[in-house]
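task queued by scheduler; priority normal; single chain, no ligands, no partner chains; default sampling; output format set to structure tokens
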Amino acid sequence: MTRPRRWTTAVLDTQAAGGWAVIHSDQGFLLDDNGAMFPREWLKRQELPLISEHGIGHFDGEPVYVYVLEHPVELEGTRWQTLRQFMLGDDADLFQVLGYAAQISTWAKEHRFCGNCGSPNLQIPGERAMHCSRCDLRAYPRISPSMIVLITRGDEVLLARSPRFVTGVYSTLAGFAEPGESAEDCVRREVMEEVQIKVKNIEYKGSQCWPFPHSMMLGFHAEYDSGEIVPQVDEIEDAQWFSIHDMPPLPASRSIARYLIDLYLAKRLGLVEPVLPGQADSQS
């Protein structure tokens, strides 16, 4: 078995020399035949529409930075690839790095100016924050809590598909938490809004950072209580009960949605329970 490569986040000094960098724009990350990490000293010699640079951590002991671009560029021998394409690839360790880099890049691009007075923000050395010297407002990376839930009824699971999904794929229900509500309240509300049913025995199963663009997915299992499925217009293309013995195409194995489904199937069918993506590394 291949040893997972070690990734740790850190606020690094952009004035330091050396290291590696990933390049992010609205089209994803730049990639060449050697991967998505480029020697930082080589990048400094390229003409790039650079908004900002941020030191984001260490990968196998090597410092890693993210270059935030104003718009995509074409460098000889390179191409752009979306974060979702990396997620579906074979390199889980690289996806972990790029997922974090994408969140920092998005935050940096969206907070170039103060949200209170409109003045330019500056990076604070040694801290992951943008600072407005005029009104002293600090902006930290945004994390949006959201719930994701698998609803079950014995040997049946309720799965749905959004118009945005890959054709044929069904997944669990999900939605963002509203101000003032608990995660459990969010589960009840989102399920009612999306499929018009009530649930009971809500149980927390784990969480996953979901960098599309900056969610913290709180995973739950809930049992069916009452009601008939009525899909929410414009949000849910189809929703139905599926037998655990006859499942439709499911989400990517690296997602918490797939983990919640596989966990329930394992318990009902007497199979080995899966490990939440990223959890195995933290326990090793």
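post-processing summary
- Helices lie at 40-43, 83-87, 92-110, 183-195, 256-269, 279-283.
- Residues 7-110 form a domain with the Nucleoside Triphosphate Pyrophosphohydrolase fold (CATH 3.90.79.20).
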